[in-house]
Design brief:
The protein is 59% helix and 0% strand. The longest helix is centred in the N-terminal third of the chain and has 22 residues.
């Protein structure tokens, strides 16, 4: 059985729900889409520009050879 307090609470709850629903249903103009700009490339520092790529070629070849050997050994040990 509902008491007067229960009925009052139901009315208040119903009014709050109606207020929330009307706030959700109000038509506000949509915000314009954000148009992003393309990022600008930054110039490399002078210390990076002075790096000679040829000086690291021998080291890169040694690393590639090592990685190939490791790959071959791991494939030989893995059961199929």
């Amino acid at each position: 059985m509902f008491t007067k307090a229960d009925s009052r609470l139901c009315r208040i709850a119903a009014m709050l729900m109606l207020l929330m629903l009307s706030a959700c249903a109000s038509s506000s103009p949509p915000s314009p889409p954000v148009i992003a700009k393309q990022p600008e490339p930054t110039p490399l520092p002078a210390s990076v520009l002075r790096i000679d790529p040829q000086s690291s070629q021998t080291w890169l070849q040694k690393v590639e050879t090592y990685l190939r050997k490791v790959d071959e050994l791991s494939r030989a040990e893995m059961p199929k």
